[in-house]
Amino acid sequence: MRWYRLLQEAAAQLLFPHFCAGCSTDVLHKDASICGRCIHRLPATSFNIIKDNPVEKIFWGRIPVQAAMAAYYFTKDSLLQTLLHELKYRRNKELGFHLGQLMGVLLKESPRFNPDILIPVPLHPKKEKERGFNQSLLLCNGIASILNVPVEESLLLKKYPGSSQTKKNRLERWENVELSFEKNPKASSSGKTALLVDDVITTGATLEACGHILTEQNELQLQIACLCYTFK
Fold it and tell me: Which residues pair with 157 in a beta bridge?
């Protein structure tokens, strides 16, 4: 009976409360990892509906991209930084899925994005084992739940772990990732237009390296979506 199920959920919430990853307040919905108030505080870019936006301009003259967007602006000591820290270092996989759903809603609102497959930027197996997950895949799964589009995580492989990109300039970032990725010879794509997904974009070096493989070796039309955009 419905009343009994609601009573069970209420009891579970009292015994095992859910807290917002952004502000630590109690979240009433048992499947939520971020509260509505924090969602509204996220600094949206509107790049999903803006042609020639700053993310798209990053790739001009580098790789052919039909459309590109980042959902939110990233700044230091912000709510978004708190959420990314919660995702990556506290291993809040549920949060990654829900952030992907927010991206999916923005993509669904835009006629500019029409992928038939989703591809996460891969992690090196050693790195993924250490972390326990690939955050880009979590975002992809969240997007897929909104767009009803399959995720193909095996098309790209990362050959080398690579060093941190944080303090590198654009040339150093490109040199660090240029040979890090390769096409998986055992995998083939079922789609024609791929949405390449990552969590953060700064110079675009990682996405460019992956995009080269997808457009040249896999012959896919390329679209790009990131959770957040770091502008300098």
Answer: 182
> Is residue 25 predicted with pLDDT exceeding 60?
yes
Burial class of 144 by CB neighbour count within 10 A (0 to 12, 13 to 18, 19+): buried
Q: Which helix (H) or strand (E) holds 156?
A: strand 156-158
Domain ranges of the chain: 1-41, 43-230
Q: Could you give phi then psi for residue 86, rounded to 5 degrees? A: -65, -40
Of the pLDDT bands very low, low, confident and very high (cuts 50, 70, 90), residue 168 is low
For the stretch 31-73, pLDDT in tens is: 678 999 999 999 999 999 999 999 999 999 999 999 999 999 9
Residue 75 near residue 29 (C-beta atoms within 8 A): no
Q: Exposed/middle/buried for 146, CB within 10 Å: 0-12, 13-18, 19+?
A: middle
**191-204 pLDDT, tens per residue?**
899 999 999 999 99
Contact indicator for 206, 121 with CB cutoff of 8 Å = yes
CATH ID of 43-230, from 3.40.50.970, 3.30.70.260, 3.40.50.2020, 3.10.450.50: 3.40.50.2020
13 versus 35: which is more confidently predicted?
35
* Amino acid type, 45: T
Question: Percentage helix, strand, coil, to 5, in the chain?
Answer: 40, 20, 40
Q: How far is CA 122 from the centre of its chain?
A: 11
Asked if 197 and 140 count as a contact pair (C-beta separation under 8 A), the reply is yes
Query: What pTM was estimated for this model as a whole?
Result: 0.87
| Three-state SS annotation for 54-96 | HHHHHCCCCCCCCEEEEEEEECCCCHHHHHHHHHHCCCCHHHH
